[in-house]
Design goal:
Blueprint lengths: L2 H16 L6 H11 L5 H14 L2 H11 L8 H13 L3
Helix pairs in contact: 1-2, 1-5, 2-3, 3-4, 3-5
């Protein structure tokens, strides 16, 4: 797993969080990074949260399963707050 791409993913998610997890350029950046690393569990987990932001729970569920994770029960912001330290620990 390329650590610089993981750092880019965390930064992109942080910008998405600042925007209130709204679709737009920040969402596109997260999605693109995740798509470029399809099949890597960490990025598949990011892809899952990305589709949750989009409101596509079916697609999000697919990516959660691929990542070996369960969909968060709380808000997207709460899930990102729990997810961020785990991703940062892989840098």
């Amino acid at each position: 797993m390329p650590k610089q791409d993981l750092a880019r993913l965390i930064e992109a998610f942080d910008r998405l969080a600042v925007s209130g997890f709204k679709l737009g350029a920040e969402w596109e950046a997260v999605h693109e990074i995740c798509q470029n690393h399809e099949g890597e569990q960490v990025f598949d987990w990011g892809h899952a949260l990305c589709h949750r932001v989009e409101g596509d729970d079916w697609n999000a569920g697919y990516w959660y399963r691929r990542a070996g994770k369960a969909m968060g029960a709380g808000t997207i912001a709460e899930e990102w707050a729990a997810m961020r330290p785990e991703l940062s620990g892989k840098l």
